[in-house]
Amino acid sequence: MFFRPITVSRRLSWLLPAVSMAALVLAGCSAEQYPQTALQPLSDFARIGDDVQDTTLKWAVAVFVLVEGALLYAVFRFRGKPGDPEPKQIHGNTTVEILWTVIPALILAAIAVPTVRGIFQTNTTPPEDGVQIEVIGHQWWWEFRYPELNITTANELHIPVGQVVKLEMGTTDVVHSFWPPRFAGKRDVFPNRETRLWFKAEEAGYYPGQCGEFCGIQHARMAFHIRAQNPDDFQAWVARMQTRGTQPVAGAAADSVRTASAGASVQQPGARPAPPAADSAAPATAVPQDPQYASGEKLFAAKGCVACHSLNVHNAPKGMIGPNLGNVGAREWLAAGTLKNTDANLARWIREPQVIKKGVLMPNLGLTSEEAGSIAAFLRAHK
């Protein structure tokens, strides 16, 4: 049996390149599905880097178009044909060699000037005023301390819009890299060494960040979120943390994880970050002694949770092994961005930490579903 060769007409020969180019262009239209992008800067620091990138990209596109255009012109205009004589062989051309040396040097200089200027701008001394925050990397979560406000929290960084935020960073174990893509570039953080970063947020919202340096088997699950707030909302959050950060919210226990004990499904994180939640500075009231809450309070102490976790957001002790849980009920995510903060997810995270995030310091304590649900009810009341 004979097969006829498949041929493509000249009219269709452009189809494959056109489809490939269209696919590349259309791929950039899905940027909204990836909120962890550095291409939409929202701070003065991030805009400096974005301007340098835009300048470099413009020069790169211009060079590509000119070089590839000249190459394609030469390929098609001077392509060989049957019977053509051998062309004259030329070795060396001083004028051309000077041009292709001087022109790239000038282009590099045009790129170097804004690059060097940006380096100096991002390494200047920050203003005296601003919010000072200590960032401490752990395997695999982030600790945030506000020394001037005497507040400690974990994995969710609250900052005011329009005010300078000064970060002083370090780690307790291995090298990490603090990367808030909408606000700044990566900053490596080291044990026994302080690195600094400062920026001014321009827009309120809830934005994801990530550890940018491989730090172990759960590196991909070492995320954090930045809640940029209007100054009034930020001050309300500060007041709430300083006045009732260690106190549970009325009614929260009664509405908590009864569904978790009943086996509600676990909700995995989606591609988009959670929307910002409203903050309130209203005074706390006493929590009714719901049986599940009371049981969870006792289990939190009896099962050894207090050995690693503090419930004191204000005046929190230093050197705790695990994340501060004083306002865990108000956070949008659990386990450093691994799970959405729901009743079912919190109960499962308490009961099966090594299943959800293998390698973390938190052990399986052999809790029953009811015990995990009670502890979750107790913790969810702390907002």
What is this structure, in a nutshell?
The protein has 383 residues and is α+β, with helices and mostly antiparallel strands. It has nine helices and twelve strands.
Task: Describe the fold and architecture.
The protein is α+β, with helices and mostly antiparallel strands and 383 residues long. The protein has 2 domains: 50 residues; 250 residues, Cupredoxins -  blue copper proteins (Immunoglobulin-like). 34% of the residues lie in helices and 16% in strands. The chain has 9 helices and 12 strands. The longest helix is centred in the first third of the chain and has 34 residues. The N and C termini lie far apart (77 Å).
Characteristic key phrases:
5-stranded mixed sheet, 9 helices, elongated, 16% strand, alpha+beta, 383 residues, Immunoglobulin-like
